[in-house]
DNA sequence: CCTCGCCACTAGCACGTGCAAGCGGTCGTG
DNA sequence: CACGACCGCTTGCACGTGCTAGTGGCGAGG
């Protein structure tokens, strides 16, 4: 027996329907500690609330308690949403268990739309990539103090998201397949320059620790036939295996190699990163790095909750399931 | 001179600081009609509000006026976010000019996270794809009545988003290139079955109106080597051109053809849909359909505003810029 | 001089919720 | 039987805003 359409069921409705006070209903529904409510009353309240289809009015809750219990996740304008969505789903679920909710916003640096943090006033803003000083200032101007990653140049725990494992696995995979001289296919896309640098750094470290010669780094986009030039350079440097920044870069390398009459992986082995779904569709299919996005989501949620409540949450960690997906482009 | 961090500046603060009543401040800041406020007072209020850094408390506004001025855009779990983001940006901008804000949610049918419409109570929920009856019921249970597309089987204006143009252009493109017997590459993904049916229907209409024989429809995923089988079937049916549901389907067809020793486009021409960025990376590169996502965004925003306010908004339309992007897979 | 209307503004309610404080009844204890 | 402890519940305030009804002052008209 739901109330008429358009009329919201309030806690007062539940109370009135039971002949109780609104406070009692509130105590039951919030499980307020320090209040004594008999089991019988509790059950009656819960049953009646369910029967009437009561839903707390979030705006009123936010107003009263002064906090929206909202976490805003700002996703950069990367073309990797296929994986991010899994991450978001998991983070959302984790936050929900703690009474928080996740709202995502894909952020356009050039965008004109007003950022969501101005109107949702979330308790925490989490970004996949660090925010610019201007953005941080804008958030602080809205009263938002909990920002992840923090404004410091380098996050306190280096690589808190455990994303440095991928490049290491790329290098080790090619090394295991017998490749000694490796190239790195970079993108010139300014939006992800930080991420490129991070992955390149990790790849360099991995190569060094395996005793391999320095990586031959080449951009594969930006200029016309940049990928073709990169492939030429790698051939001259006797490079036989290429670590690509991501799957798009890998695809560009493979495309240039094929168009140049080379065999992949026979003449040049290539491994991408992110395990974008289309990697399996290519000819040859593209080896890549699968990331534990679910774990990453849980990790982000834990970070956000820590910031919001001050209480740490047990966090399963993220980097356990980062793994190589071997396909044809490296000889699978 | 901003108030101390953590303390919100309210309209009452502005009023107190000027020795005015809170109502006066409210009238000025809302531009309430039917109230007489002297120019001098108005200026003083605006200046003081700016000086103190006043930001209206959205939760309080939503509580008081009973409407969140929020539009929730539910994006299905499609891997097309590259284009959706442009659409969202544009819709967001259009809505903003009308005082509304856009929040997006990528929706997972199997997801366990509670949908955002339960906690943001948006005025309008807009979906790229029609909602299931269960979803519609869930929304109505939360008091949300304005849902786009509506629950009726077929939206009142057929194809309100103007998305039927793409398949027509695909068919016409192949026809122009001399192909008579066409195939249609479908996906078995249940999440997009409605969209597949819609695109297939449009393609069939286009083929019929050109006097072409019926489309040979085959799924290209779901079963192992479904794409390979589809290619075989098309060959036997003398099909030389394939209209793919989207770029992924196109890639699967091309992959299967290449692995079967066929030439693309020499033996089989293929055109995708959505102009996914990776279509340019394939070998051969994949012809596709570019959609005017910016226009689509404006159109969606206009629909949402119409539902929210009842007043129609002038709408530039969407289908003008849907266009073929000719690449190698159809002989460019 | 009184009244009426207008101007510019104020008092105050309502939205739905969370929670501190209080209050009547019952039970155990001296 | 008196008294305090405690249980179970209610009264009532506060959050910040939008807006209706009203209010005092003042000039104009009769």
Could you walk me through the main structural features you see in this protein, from its secondary elements to its overall organization?
The structure is a homodimer of 332-residue chains. The first copy, chain A, is an alpha/beta fold. Helix content of chain A is 42%, strand content 12%. Chain A contains 12 helices and 10 strands. In chain A, the strands form 3 sheets. A 4-stranded parallel β-sheet of chain A has the order 2-1-3-4, covered by helices on one side. In chain A, strands 6-5-7-8 form a 4-stranded parallel β-sheet, with helices on both faces. In chain A, strands 9-10 form a two-stranded antiparallel sheet. In chain A, strand 1, helix 5 and strand 2 (101-106) form a beta-alpha-beta unit. In chain A, helix 1 (11-18) crosses helix 3. At the A-B interface, helix 4, helix 5, strand 2, helix 6 and helix 11 of A face helix 4, helix 5, strand 2, helix 6 and helix 11 of B. Chain A binds a DNA duplex (30 and 30 nucleotides) through residues 8, 10-12, 20-24, 26-27, 30, 32, 34-38, 41, 56-57, 59-66.
Largest sheet of chain A: 4 strands, parallel
Segments of chain A where pLDDT lies below 50 for 5+ residues?
A: 1-5, 153-160
Radius of gyration of chain A: 26 Å
Question: What number is the mean pLDDT of chain A?
Answer: 86
Q: Give me the strand/helix succession of chain A.
A: HHHHEHEHEHEHEHEHEHEEHE
Number of extended strands of chain A: 10
Q: Given the structure, what is the number of helices of chain A?
A: 12
Strand content of chain A: 5-15%
In whole angstroms, how far apart are the ends of chain A?
61 Å
Bulk shape of chain A: elongated
